[in-house]
Each structure stands twice: as structure tokens, then as C-alpha cells.
Design a protein that fits this description.
single chain; 392 residues; alpha+beta; 10 helices
């Protein structure tokens, strides 16, 4: 399979235990483009709160580094378990983990210790992939479960902490908890309802469904879900700013017109340029009450049209902070489009907008090209997207 034909959409969603300030589960991931490889780790620390978070974070980061370096699997696990601090209450050092190592051809290996067994979805059907067990001599009570499989476009891999499978434990409806079978049934129902559901949407749905099983919606444990969706890449082009040379306006509009994917325009001048070159009608929406950003516009052939630098600056802040989608403002809508895409191409015009030279504007209002670089970097590092920037 050609590397360009497969993209791994990765997202995780967490909910901390009721009445705790931090989550005791931790997630770490990294895409290695030069190796055509992606590694993701989900770890569940002993107990909850700050101590659990420290245990889980240490485990996740160590696992990521060891696997990336190609260290012997069993030895890596032993070093991680030996390195963890000892809990003063339980007198043991403990953090469960699930490590996913996959390449862009779909070959995937999952190493799990203590976490619920991963679920492989072939389209909308769970597949019971056989696993082998590896036991450490140093820690005879710890057993690593290793699953190896080939993922194809349309397949999904779901990994979770026991906060998901044990949700609802002790209730009349689920005296033994939701369990893995309950989770599988939910996944089948959700994917059949929307076979293109993204990893972001599915991981959030799993955690929210688990929360609904808890008395008063108060989780008794940290709850995390990681979803990896192997699919054909969803492409997006973001055009912002007119070209440096006005004679290239037609070329700029043609680049967007010929793009084989979804399209967004950021900037009123840019939108008017494209509308003029396409002979299209640009209609501006009414501003929402209390809005802090200019409203979006609508144009045939474009999925989203927003204001320029102000909106992009808000998006940069939110993706850098990994904020959740919330108020539905123009920055939220653009961020939603970005996160729902896999490969994102930014086309940045370099003509200077005189409005951005106004000294009364906020000091942190950066020029367009720097804001776009911030967004691209955050999408790469925080969401494992593939981005490129072209200046025109």
C-alpha cells in the first residue's frame, strides 16, 4: 500500500475521577515521518489524583522513548516497572499501560499490561485478534499481552483505561460494570450509525457513554479512551491572504478551485478576491450576540469562510492549549474543520494588510504567516496532523 493512501487519525478523550483536580491517566504519542511510523501510549496510574498522574505520565513517556529507540520489549517493560516510585499506602509501584506501534502500511503491534484488552474494529465488526502472553522474571505477577495485526482503510483500534469498562459498577443495570462486551456493543452501534465517525468524535462518545452509567454522572475512576482510525486521508486547504503580486490573484483562486478536498478561506480580502475570480456570490452571516470575532460568510464551493488574522490567532491559541470545542464561534468552526482533516495545506498570501500595522491593535496580534506557522506546528505536535505551508 502506498504511504499516501493511508492516514492514521489519532485522538484520545479523558475524564478525571469525581472530586479530583487532575486525571490519573496519561497519553503520549509521536509520529515519525522519516520512518513512516506512529507510536501512541495510554497509561493508567495507581489510584487517582496527582500521584496517579505522575506514575502514568512517567510510564507513558518512558514507553514512548523505549519503543521509538527499538529497545527490547520485555526489558523496556521491566525498566519502566522498576523505575516507578513506590506508593506509600499500597507499598507497590504500579501503572498499567497500552502501547500501540504502527506503520503507514497498517502493520500494528499493541503491547498491554493491566489495561482492558484493545478492540479491533473491521469497519463495524469487532475482530477477536489472537494475542500472545509474555511474563517478566523480575515481576512474575505482571503479564504483557501482545497483539499483532494488519489494519486496512476503514479499520479502527480502540484502547481504554479500566474506568471505561468498569463504569456503572454496583448499579442495578450494571452490577459488574459496563465491561468490554458492553463497550463493543456501543462501538458497533455508533460506527453503524456513522461509518465515517472520526477518532475525536468516537473517543468522546465512549467516555461520555461511560459517564452516563455512573450514579449522578460522577465517575468513580479516571476514564480514558484512545481511538486510532485507519482511513484515506481527509484533505483540507486553507487559503489566507491575497498574493504579494495582484497579477497573481487569478492563480491564487485557481489553486483553491483545483484542490481535491475541503476548502476554507480566512480573510475578507481573500474571500472577495476568490468570489471575484470565480464569479461567485459572498454572503456574510449575521453576528452572534456578544461575539468577539467577525462573523463567518458563505460562498458556493467553499466549506468555511472566516475573517483573517483575528480568527487565526484565536485558533492558534486553542490548538496550542488543546482546548475542547465549545462556543461555536468562527474560530471554533475553523478548529473543528482542521481537527476533522488529516492533511492540511496552508496557502498564505504575503501582501501586507495595512490594518495589521495599526499600533492600537493587541501586541500579540501577529502577522498572518507567523500565526499560520503556529497553527501548523500545534496541529503536527498535538494532533499528529500532516501540514504544509505554501507562500504566494
Amino acid at each position: 500500500m502506498n504511504v499516501d493512501e493511508l492516514f492514521i487519525d489519532v485522538h484520545h478523550h479523558v475524564c478525571r475521577k469525581w472530586n479530583q483536580n487532575v486525571c490519573g491517566d496519561a497519553f503520549a504519542s509521536k509520529r515519525f515521518d522519516n520512518e513512516g511510523r506512529l507510536i501512541a501510549v495510554l497509561s493508567d496510574g495507581l489510584g487517582s489524583g496527582v500521584k496517579a498522574n505522575i506514575l502514568a505520565s512517567m510510564t507513558a513517556q518512558m514507553a514512548l522513548r523505549f519503543v521509538a529507540a527499538g529497545t527490547d520489549l520485555l526489558r523496556s517493560c521491566e525498566v519502566m516497572m522498576e523505575s516507578l516510585p513506590v506508593c506509600q499506602v499500597r507499598k507497590i509501584s504500579y501503572a498499567t499501560f497500552s502501547i500501540v506501534d504502527c506503520d503507514m502500511e497498517g502493520m500494528t503491534r499493541v503491547v498491554e499490561e493491566g489495561n482492558p484488552e484493545c478492540i479491533v474494529m473491521r469497519r463495524d465488526i469487532p475482530d477477536d485478534v489472537p494475542a500472545r502472553i509474555m511474563t517478566s522474571r523480575m515481576f512474575p505477577d505482571r503479564h504483557m499481552r501482545i497483539t499483532e495485526t494488519s489494519m486496512q482503510p476503514g479499520d479502527r483500534l480502540i484502547v481504554c483505561s479500566d474506568g471505561v469498562t468498569q463504569s456503572g459498577t454496583g448499579t442495578m443495570a450494571y452490577p459488574l460494570g459496563w465491561r468490554r462486551e458492553g463497550l463493543k456493543d456501543f462501538l458497533v452501534e455508533t460506527v453503524r450509525g456513522d461509518r465515517f465517525v472520526s477518532s475525536r468524535e468516537l473517543s468522546q462518545s465512549v467516555v461520555e457513554a461511560a459517564m452516563q452509567l455512573e450514579p449522578n454522572f460522577q465517575p468513580n475512576d479516571d476514564t480514558s479512551c484512545l481511538v486510532m482510525y485507519f482511513r484515506r486521508p481527509r484533505r483540507l486547504m486553507v487559503l489566507t491572504g491575497p498574493p504579494y503580486d495582484p497579477d497573481r490573484d487569478g492563480e491564487c483562486a485557481a489553486v483553491l478551485d483545483e484542490f481535491p478536498g475541503r476548502r476554507a478561506i480566512c480573510g475578507g480580502t481573500t474571500a472577495n478576491l476568490v468570489a471575484r475570480e470565480w464569479g461567485a456570490y459572498l454572503e456574510t452571516e449575521l453576528p452572534a450576540r456578544g461575539a468577539t470575532l467577525p462573523p463567518c460568510s458563505a460562498m458556493t464551493g467553499v466549506d468555511l469562510v472566516t475573517e483573517g488574522v483575528l480568527t487565526l490567532t484565536q485558533v492558534a491559541r486553542r490548538v496550542e492549549a488543546r482546548e475542547s470545542l465549545g462556543n461555536g464561534d468562527p474560530a471554533d468552526r475553523l478548529m473543528d474543520l482542521l481537527l476533522d482533516s488529516d492533511t492540511i495545506e496552508f496557502v498564505v498570501g504575503t501582501r501586507i494588510n495595512e490594518a495589521h500595522q495599526d499600533p492600537t491593535l493587541p501586541l500579540d496580534l501577529e502577522i498572518r504567516r507567523n500565526v499560520v506557522r503556529r497553527i501548523a506546528t500545534a496541529l503536527n505536535e498535538n494532533y499528529l496532523k500532516k501540514t504544509s505551508i505554501r507562500f504566494i
